[in-house]
Amino acid sequence: MHGPFWQKVGKKDMREKWFREHIWWMSFILSLMVVWVHSENTELFLGELGRETMVYSLENFFAQTLGQIAVPGFFMISAYLFYRNFQFSKTVSKWKSRCKSLLLPYVLWNTLYYMGYVVVTRLSFVKKIIGKEPVAFGLKELFQAVAYYKYNPVFWYLFQLLLLVVLAPFLYWIICRKWSGLLWLLLLITALWKNVSLPILNLDALFYYSAAGYAVLFSEKVEGENTSSGKKIWFAILILCWLTLWFLGRPGATLHFTPVHTVLTRLLGVLIFYSILKEIPFRPATSTVKNSFFLYAIHFPWARFFNKAGAVLFKGNQGAAAVFFLTMPFLILGISKVLGELLKHTVPGIYEILSGGRGQ
User: Angle at CA 67, nearest 5°, toward 273 and 115?
Assistant: First the structure.
């Protein structure tokens, strides 16, 4: 049991565990970043003059600079997991697992959000805070809510991801060959440069998914096996590329305020972020860390509610605006933990769907 074969198997298992732990932690941290993206509150607390304050600069840094790598990171993680060890014979099983982890939660969450808005917008004391007129109740509105996330705006990402999962086996035909995959990525970059729009599917989402899929199909080494010098060289290349993009994106420069600059900058941001995370010896992920999807699913209405309530209580207070913003991810994390545990022990079947089978 201690021969070369078993040593190789044991090493492979360790690498797989290392990889899974880092993916869980990365998804968790990106989910906290998403909360910051949707927690900007200077306009609520300070009005139009809020843009001239240090609080606005602080929030802009966390939400619009750091936070904007979150959703691209989600697309890239999803693609990486789909195409890792992919074979066409696994297509049906991959689709089935995504039905449980993506499609069923998408339908149930959208239904619950719609029904919640139908009820809440008819409560006068809540209506004053959220500022919405009573939501219509009917089959047409229900269809819009469930199919097109009308009352759950953050699920635009999940809608796009579901489309990409359907397309994934067909994309494989293109990206599984080095040159055709490279030409495909260059074609997408050119389309971004020309500001091309696709029906239904977002071009940037397609690029992130394709780029991550191409990377996993042609990565020659398993995660965690790179040499120390190789890691340093790779990190230096990423930083150099980021600085080049920053230079080309300055006002008056070639790529200033172009979609291709935004997309490539966020792509590099995800790669730099993951390169840093790879060097951190994380503790084993808990159920809370593994179930970052539940945090993502509930965060938006809670963040808006707390900020609007805070603005009523502390109108014009810059310090309060900053505290609400900075602590929001951790406040939502606490709510996610409490609600998750409550649902897990009262309606485990429903929680299983809402969490997509994560964090059990």
Answer: 130
Q: Which two structure tokens, joined as six digits, stand for 169?
A: 């086996």
Let me know the angle formed at the C-alpha of 267 by 265 and 271, rounded to the nearest 5 degrees: 115
Alpha helix positions (H), 121-177: 124-130, 139-148, 156-175
220 CB burial (10 A radius; 0-12, 13-18, 19+) = exposed
Long-range residue pairs from 90-95, CB within 8 A, at least 24 positions apart, any chain: 91/169, 94/165, 94/168, 95/165, 95/166
Give the tens place of pLDDT for each residue, 255-297.
999 999 999 999 999 999 999 999 999 999 999 999 899 999 9
CA 184/CA 214 separation, integer angstroms: 10
**CA–CA separation, 162 and 135 (whole Å):** 27
| DSSP state, residue 52 | G
pLDDT tens-digit series, residues 43-100: 999 998 888 999 999 999 999 999 999 999 999 999 999 999 899 999 999 999 999 9
Lowest mean pLDDT among 112-116, 137-141, 215-219, 308-312: 215-219
| The pair of three-digit structure tokens given for residue 187, joined into one six-digit string | 């074609």
- pTM for the complete prediction? 0.92
Long-range contacts, 331-339 (Cβ 8 Å, 24+): 331/302, 331/306, 332/35, 332/295, 332/298, 332/299, 332/302, 332/303, 333/32, 333/288, 333/295, 335/298, 335/302, 336/288, 336/291, 336/294, 336/295, 336/298, 336/299, 337/288, 339/294, 339/298
